[in-house]
Design a protein that fits this description.
The structure holds 2 protein chains of 2 kinds. Chain A is about 40% helix and about 15% strand. By secondary structure, chain A is of the alpha/beta class. In chain A, the strands form 4 sheets. Chain A has a 7-stranded mixed β-sheet, with helices on both faces. In chain A, strands 11-12-15-14 form a 4-stranded antiparallel β-sheet, with helices on one face. In chain A, strands 1-13 form a two-stranded parallel sheet. Chain B has a domain at about 95-350: Aspartate Aminotransferase, domain 2 (3-Layer(aba) Sandwich). Chain B is built from 15 helices and 12 strands. In chain B, the strands form 3 sheets. In chain B, strands 1-7-6-5-4-2-3 form a 7-stranded mixed β-sheet, with helices on both faces. In chain B, strands 10-12-11 form a 3-stranded antiparallel β-sheet, with helices on one face. In chain B, strands 8-9 form a two-stranded antiparallel sheet. In chain B, helix 9 (about 235-245) links the parallel strand 4 (about 220-225) and strand 5 (about 250-255). The longest helix of chain B has about 35 residues, at about 340-375. The chains are: A alpha/beta, B alpha/beta. Chains A and B meet through helix 1, helix 2, helix 3, helix 4 and helix 5 of A and helix 2, helix 3, helix 4, helix 5 and helix 6 of B. Bound molecules: pyridoxal-5'-phosphate (PLP). Pyridoxal-5'-phosphate binds near residues 225, 278 and 293 of chain B.
Chain lengths: ~450, ~500
């Protein structure tokens, strides 16, 4: 295939106009030694029907959550995506526009991102949201860097309830900086405010927690915020946006920087990406925010309009002193979240959260009633919980898989102490019959 | 029922915000009622962790929602509707088949923590893409994980830091030309390194004397962009590489401009050790109003062991796997594996074009840029001499009429053309990148329009000062927007007394 439209005749005309004989002359600045004197070693070009068949075969070689019943979570969830999300976010104007630097030619995108920022503030109870970051883990890392930029302190305290992959991303980011990372163990599934208090000091950059945390347990953000604030540090909380339909909002709990993975907001599982990192903060952090911000203003005729603003934080102006290096963000995913949140609305988000809660508790009760299965933690949970089994975890999960069920995520890979455990997530999409089938499969295993 | 006539969309009226359309009781989603016993939240979660009321999201019916976002889409320039010669951004056509590929349920419905056996098609596709990107770069191995160009820069610099550490060194400085994209120095800071600007010569190339002066045993790397941001291939690239390597530093390529050299020259062959791609530029993945992109990083042999975890590998039995066991790796740089949906599109693009097609892309991109430049000769100043790569700079020397590059850019909007990149890397310039996918007729229409605007500047400069007149809005008060930031909608008066929920506890820390 080819996507260029220039014919041989066009090329000849263009060369004439430039005043050269061949395209090769345009590459005269590329030294001979640097040139490739053979074709690239790649598979031959495909025509459109060949490519469709080829891609279909690759897609068909996977076994996804349309074919299997998904109880996997651990940071990505099989929530229902309303048809309007695909239909509207798929409009080619949204898909094929660049970052809205030229405001007059980009009002549609700018208004959508202004709406996104507002919706994220409403959902988290925070003051200011940026226009998106790469994903939940990098948003957490950006939050840590922002806290350091604000107070210059060098010791980041991270709850053991934070997703282990997010912790690893934090480790990667902090390794290059004069910063240390301290993990607070969470043997009960929850962050212990007393232990946190002992760890905090006037060197604490920030405290990072997650709620519901990696084990599904709901933390008391309010108590953790109070302890953190006593050390003069901000609390960074990674939250599940769906849980915000039910739980007290981070902003109301005293959280200073709310971040999270926006995938549950109308974004397909897609084997891990592209997802959406969101970040919303208290007013005091507004000028320290990483990423883009859209603001409302007026045009010369006094009409309400929108533009990128506070750009002096960004790299093209501030270069090495920018608040972050993030430039391209997750615009189209932020648009999906905007459409999702306005489609479900105030009552819908509460309904989705309530369905998750009921179904997860139904599943947990049934599983815990099985011989040789129990819940690993007594802490309150929302849509996800840890199951401990005296059977072999690998065999249990494999048996369920043979029955077309993705029963959960084995935790041994991340937590030595949880080698006999797996994590089960139940969204509003799971039916009673599917949950009963899961329970039956675990029982048989 | 509302009697507000603003509810009927008039073509020129700005659409009300979602929040202004909220209609309590409306909802665009229907879900089945619970088929399990309904659990009262307070029976399983302590009351002090629960909200009294749901978050105050707007409530909108499905048709109004559809109209709202459709109207927004129509207030937006895009590649599918407009010529978009935005320099450095490679706004080429985004093939429709790529969208079809990425939307295949066999890809979209995969959970990232499924077993490798269940995702062999996905792993195989990504492994093939890795291999293709390594071949195009002339380098040994590739990670597909970084989420965008800047994330690739950060990952690349971390790999370079790890390489130095493995040799018992910690180097603190990274050099980059003063014409480098702002993310280059910003990424240095994220990696705890000092960015040192290197001067450019009047001909746009790196000043080798300045480079020699600044490179030392504290230099971890030099970041170059080649062809550079002025659209010029630096013919002294071999000297640059020699100087940098001579100091024990590595050469990093910002691959944002790879669209100019696909199959023509490979970074690994001209001395580059580490580079990132912007697949949302070079490999046709759409920009989505600002993202998502993807910034795969390629490395020279000897640096593979530092690549982020997990890494996709091909086993001896021909199956594919995620390798988590990489003791020398810099670690994880993001959640899960990568911007998979974007990478599928890049794969489809490379598979469609093949080796000859990719080289043809670069030849035609460079031809288009040089053709438009030739058409504009005599009407605009050119800060640098050609031949150009895939983009070039012009400076509208129209100041005698009080006209700036901003005025020219805004006037282009009136003609349905998205403005070029402005005022970077040279003051007052416009950076024009036509790309290979435009027809000759479009290129000619663009050149004619710019020439027309240059004439207008002399005869009717007001047309430029007041532009755009044919866009949904006229010029904005951007200064006012930054002075008094209004970053979210707020209800005129609390919509719902409980919407603010409990008072937040007093704030003790000082941010
Ligand atoms: C030359 C150059 N380098 C780096 C970047 C940063 O890439 P990204 O926006 O994907 O992070 C860009 C584009 O924005 C660029 O044009």
């Amino acid at each position: 295939m080819q996507y260029t439209q220039l014919t041989d005749n066009d090329v000849r005309q263009m060369l004439d106009r430039i005043g050269i004989e061949s395209i090769d002359a345009l590459f005269q600045n590329v030294p001979k030694r640097a040139r490739l004197d053979r074709p690239l070693c790649l598979p031959a070009a495909m025509t459109e029907p060949e490519l469709i068949a080829h891609l279909g075969a690759l897609a068909g070689a996977n076994h996804g959550c349309d074919e299997l019943t998904c109880f996997l979570g651990g940071g990505a969830y099989d929530h229902f995506i309303p048809t309007v999300v695909d239909a509207l976010a798929g409009q080619s104007e949204f898909v094929t526009a660049y970052t809205p630097y030229q405001a007059e030619a980009s009002q549609g995108a700018l208004q959508a991102f202004f709406e996104y920022q507002t919706l994220i503030c409403q959902l988290t109870g925070m003051d200011v949201s940026n226009a998106s970051l790469y994903d939940g883990a990098t948003a957490t890392a950006e939050a840590a860097l922002m806290a350091r930029g604000a107070n210059g302190r060098r010791r980041l305290i991270v709850s053991g309830g934070v997703h282990p992959d997010t912790r690893r991303v934090l480790e990667t980011y902090l390794r290059e900086l004069p910063m240390e990372l301290e993990i607070i163990e969470t043997p009960t599934g929850l962050t212990d405010p007393g232990v946190l208090r002992k760890a905090c000091s006037d060197e604490t950059t920030a405290v990072v927690v997650q709620s519901p945390n990696f084990f599904g347990c709901v933390e008391s953000l309010e108590r953790l915020a109070a302890v953190t604030h006593d050390a003069g540090a901000p609390l960074i909380a990674s939250v599940d946006p769906i849980a915000c339909g039910l739980l007290k909002l981070p902003g109301a709990c005293g959280v200073d920087i709310a971040v999270g993975e926006g995938q549950p907001l109308g974004i397909p599982l897609g084997w891990g990406g592209p997802y959406l990192g969101f970040m919303a903060v208290r007013e005091a952090f507004m000028r320290k925010l990483p990423g883009r911000l859209v603001g409302a203003t007026r045009d010369t005729n006094g009409r309400r309009s929108f533009c990128l603003t506070l750009q002096t934080r960004e790299q093209h102006i501030r270069r090495e002193r920018a608040t972050s290096n993030v430039c391209t963000n997750q615009g189209l995913l932020a648009l999906r979240a905007t459409i999702y949140l306005s489609a479900v609305g105030r009552t819908g988000i509460a309904n989705v959260a309530s369905l998750c809660l009921s179904k997860a508790h139904y599943a947990a009760e049934r599983i815990a009633a099985l011989d040789r299965f129990e819940l690993a933690f007594a802490a309150p949970f929302f849509k996800e919980f840890v199951v401990r089994t005296r059977k072999d975890v690998g065999k249990v999960l494999q048996h369920a898989r043979q029955h077309g069920i993705l029963a959960g995520v084995a935790l041994g890979r991340w937590h030595e102490a949880l080698r006999d455990c797996f994590l089960v997530a139940v969204t509003e999409k799971r039916t009673r019959a599917q949950i009963d089938a899961l329970v039956a499969a675990l029982k048989e295993a | 029922m509302t009697s507000n006539p603003d509810r009927i969309p008039r073509p020129d009226a700005p659409p009300p915000l979602l929040f202004e359309q909220s209609h309590p009781g409306a909802c665009a989603v229907s879900l089945p009622a619970a088929d399990v016993p309904t659990v009262k939240p307070a029976s399983v979660i302590p009351a002090d962790l629960l909200a009294a009321v749901p978050p105050p999201l707007p409530e909108i019916g499905e048709l109004d929602l559809v109209r709202h976002f459709t109207r927004l889409a129509h207030r937006l320039f895009s590649v599918d509707a407009n010529f978009y010669p935005l320099g450095s951004c490679t706004m080429k056509y985004n093939p429709k088949i790529n969208e079809r590929a990425a939307a295949m349920p066999g890809f979209t419905n995969l959970h990232p923590l499924q077993a490798d056996e269940d995702v062999q098609g996905m792993l195989g596709l990504l492994h093939t893409l890795q291999t293709a990107l390594a071949e195009i770069a002339g380098l040994a191995d590739v990670t597909l994980q970084p989420a965008a160009g800047a994330h690739g820069e950060m990952t690349g610099l971390m790999l370079i830091n790890a390489w130095h550490r493995s040799r018992g060194e910690t180097r603190t400085k990274v050099l980059a030309p003063d014409t480098a994209h702002g993310t280059n120095p910003a990424s240095c800071t994220v990696c705890g390194r000092h960015a040192i600007p290197i001067k450019s010569l009047p001909n746009g190339r790196v000043d080798l004397d300045d480079l020699r002066k600044r490179v030392d045993e504290q230099t971890a790397a030099m970041m170059i962009t080649n062809p550079n941001t002025a659209g010029l291939f630096d013919s002294h690239i071999a000297d640059i590489a020699e100087i940098v390597h001579g100091a024990g530093a590595l050469l990093y390529l910002d691959g944002a401009n790879m669209n100019a050299i696909l199959g023509v020259a490979r970074p690994g062959d001209f001395g580059v050790d580490v580079m990132h791609y912007n697949v949302h530029k070079t490999f046709s993945t759409p920009h989505g109003c600002g993202g998502p992109g993807a910034g795969p990083v390629a490395v020279r042999a000897g640096l593979e062991r530092f690549l982020p975890t997990p890494h996709i590998v091909r086993r001896d039995d021909g199956t594919y796997a995620l390798d988590h066991d990489r003791p020398d790796s810099i670690g994880k740089v993001r959640s899960f594996y990568g911007q998979t949906g974007v990478l599928i599109r890049a794969y489809a693009y490379i598979a469609a074009l093949g080796p000859e097609g990719l080289r043809d892309v670069s030849e035609k991109a460079v031809l288009a840029a040089n053709y438009v430049a030739a058409r504009l000769k005599g009407h605009f100043a050119f800060p640098f001499e050609g031949p150009y790569a895939h983009e070039f700079l012009i400076v509208p020397q129209l100041t005698q009429h009080g006209v700036t590059e901003l005025d020219v850019a805004k006037r282009l909007i009136d003609f349905g053309i998205h403005p070029p990149t402005m005022s970077w890397p040279v003051a007052h310039c416009l950076m024009i990148e036509p790309t290979e996918t435009e027809s000759l007729a479009t290129l000619d229409a663009f050149a004619n329009t710019l020439i027309h605007i240059a004439n207008e500047a002399a005869t009717q400069p007001d047309r430029l000062h007041s532009a755009p007149q044919h866009a949904p809005v006229t010029r904005l008060d951007e200064v006012g927007a930054a002075r008094k930031p209004e970053l979210r909608w707020r209800a005129a008066e609390p919509q719902d007394k409980s919407a603010g929920q409990q008072e937040p506890p007093p704030r003790i820390h000082k941010a």
